[in-house]
Amino acid sequence: MDFFDQLFTNPGITRALPEEFAATMQMIGISGFFTLLVGLPLGVFLSASAPDGLRPMPLTNKVISGVVVNITRSIPFAILMVSLIPLARLLTGTSIGPVAASVSLSIGAIPFFARLVETSLRDVSSGKIDAALVMGSTRMQVVTKVLLREALPGLIAAFTTTLVTLVGYSAMAGIIGGGGLGRLAYNYGLQRFDTTVMVVVIIIIVLIVQAIQLAGDWAARRVDHRSAATAGSGKRLRRKAAVQVVGS
Amino acid sequence: MITVSDLRKTYQQGSRTITALDGVSLTVPRGSIHGIIGHSGAGKSTLVRCLTLLDRPTSGSVTIDGRELTAVKDSEIRTARRRIGMVFQHANLMDSRTAAQNVAHPLELVKTPKADISSTVARLLDLVGLAGFADAYPSQLSGGQKQRVGIARALASDPDVLLCDEPTSALDPTTTDDILDLIHNLTDTLGLTVLIITHEMNVVKRICDSVSLLEDGRVVEHGRLQDVAAQLDGKLSRALLPLPAHRPGRMPALELLLAGDVASGPVLSDLGRRFDLSINVLAGSVENLADSRFGRLRIEVSELAPVEEMLQYLQSQGVAAKVA
User: Fold this and answer.
1) What is the 3-state secondary structure (H, E, C) of chain B?
2) Among partner residues A128, A135, A228, which is closest to B139 by beta-carbon distance?
3) Shortest Cα distance, chain B CAs vs residue A13, angstroms
4) pLDDT above 90 covers what percent of chain B?
5) What are the extents of the domains in chain A?
6) Can you tell me the distance from the alpha carbon of A132 to that of A77, in angstroms, rounded to the nearest whole number?
7) Quick one: closest CA in B to A139, which residue?
8) DSSP label at A246?
9) Residue A14 has pLDDT above 80, yes or no
């Protein structure tokens, strides 16, 4: 049987693939959601509590930044995942399946995303923050109306990067009980030498990554008004040429 | 009216204590424009940060229209700040907001009704000459236009005081003049009290009623423009009426400062005729400041000239003079 016949007859593709694809999407969806929910405020806190931040808290900042974020980030994800199985069981009642895997995926991705958020927020010029403070903003208003809005293109890019990382993590999670495309590739491709399934899974993962990246780039461009070239792209301001060359 | 009295600010840098402001006092009457001029490192930025309470001064007070800003509690700082509109060197507009949204920003903070916001914003954009640019993003505006938006935004909270921190230092000369004229007109129409911090003498010459010279955290000279300009040996006067570079002659030289009506009179001809001398002008600078005429001249006379008598004569004519 050649490759293309197999696409329609191989049970690994016809039966298992849709199910595992859904499991992968579920993992990315759930962990992406929680990463945003926890990682964004954590990133804001890291940037605001820095010594030169909006509300300096040097000691707390050092503890959270140094201990929690850096330690979590320095543990290899595969090991982190295994060590978090008890926590996953506690929270979800099971240690296998995409929902359980989402626990460790989230915990692995939150510090990563929080660091990216912190970096994006740090890029907002201090002059803008001063301007907002002088006009009578509360610190919270500075965060919501200045920091998050001005850094939005960077934040979207950071979240895109995080989601792409989650795709990779989720494939790893699949092998140790999470299910999804990672397990499919491992079971069929590695253990049964079924190259077709392996190739198809790789193509699908590449397509997911491409889709996330394209969507992220598009969204970041839409909200980016920092340069004149992109300033109008959100609204599609159409302008006529100021001078029209006669006869052209 | 702004009153700053004995403002001090010290920073701790490692084991060293740095005194950025060393007892700054100044008074700006309501409706006038006061310039604070100084080189970088003189303490201008620190002064701005203390006036807006972005930094708390170590001691001293800032009072605006009888209310002491430096006495308010941390929780009331935000209300106090709204009495000051601030214009920054680089405008510091939000890139994610259109011109209109930038001007609306201070109004949103205090939950102004939407209809009021849009009418105020339209009025302010019109006032600064940007009526047609409401929907433009800062990146689509020129430097001067951005600064106009910045000025409109500073006026949105209806402040008593406009504090301008190097408002034209990033602009070209023509745009600088436009922005200064705008600030001048706004002062007249809105009855604002304006404090301009700058390192450009041109700004002071063009719009300031009074001026302070800041050096090493201290006000070393201050006064109305026409008063400081009339000081023969004043640092501000020398900066306002600079003598161009010139080669000193071999003959005795005199330096003259002419202020007011005398600056329009035939001082040199009279002097020459009276002492029967020919006078050679080495360098000179003549300006119109605060609606009167000022001139600083360096002249060369013959070795045989009766210098002492000439100085006395000049003084009797109301011209400050000395041997250069």
Assistant:
1) CEEEEEEEEEEEECCEEEEEEEEEEEEECCCCEEEEECCCCCCHHHHHHHHCCCCCCCEEEEEECCEEHHHCCHHHHHHHHCCEEEECCCCCCCCCCCHHHHHHHHHHHCCCCHHHHHHHHHHHHHHCCCHHHCCCCHHHCCHHHHHHHHHHHHHCCCCCEEEEECCCCCCCHHHHHHHHHHHHHHHHHHCCEEEEEECCHHHHHHHCCEEEEEECCEEEEEEEHHHHHCCCCCHHHHHHCCCCCCCCCCCCEEEEEEEHHHHHCCHHHHHHHHHCCCCEEEEEEEEEECCEEEEEEEEECCCCCCHHHHHHHHHHCCCEEEEC
2) A228
3) 46
4) 54
5) 3-231
6) 40
7) B78
8) T
9) no
Looking at the complex, does the CB of residue B315 fall below 8 Å from at least one CB of chain A? no
The domain segmentation of chain B, as residue ranges, is 2-229, 241-323
Q: Which fold, A3-231?
A: MetI-like fold (1.10.3720)
d(CA A69, CA A48): 16
Judged against a pLDDT cut of 60, whether residue A244 lies above it is answered with no
B86 contacts in chain A (CB < 8 Å): 131, 134-135
Q: Contact B140/A227, CB-based, under 8 Å?
A: no
Per-residue tokens: A29: 């969806």
Contacts made by residues B39-43, CB under 8 angstroms, sequence distance 24+: B39/B199, B39/B215, B40/B199, B42/B214, B42/B215, B42/B216, B42/B217, B43/B9, B43/B214, B43/B216, B43/B217
Count how many Cα atoms sit within 13 Å of the Cα of residue A224 in the half-sphere of its side chain: 16
Output the furthest CA–CA distance in chain B (Å, rounded).
80
Show the tokens assigned to A210: 């491409």
Architecture of domain B241-323: 2-Layer Sandwich (3.30)
* pLDDT for B167 beyond 80: yes
At A130-143, the pLDDT tens digits run: 999 999 899 999 99
Q: From CA A65, how far away is CA A42, in angstroms rounded?
A: 10
Other residues' Cβ atoms within 10 Å of the Cβ of residue B175: 17
Q: Does the distance separating the beta carbons of B105 and A232 come in below 8 Å?
A: no
pLDDT digits (tens, 9 = 90+) for B12-34: 888 888 889 999 999 999 999 99
- Which residue does chain B place closest to A232, by CA atoms? B137
Give me the CATH code for the B2-229 domain, please: 3.40.50.300
Is residue B94 less than 8 Å (CB to CB) from chain A? yes
Predicted local distance difference test score (pLDDT) of residue A230: 55
Residues in chain B within 8 Å Cβ distance of A231: 136-137, 139-140
Q: Which residues of B touch A146 (CB under 8 A)?
A: 94
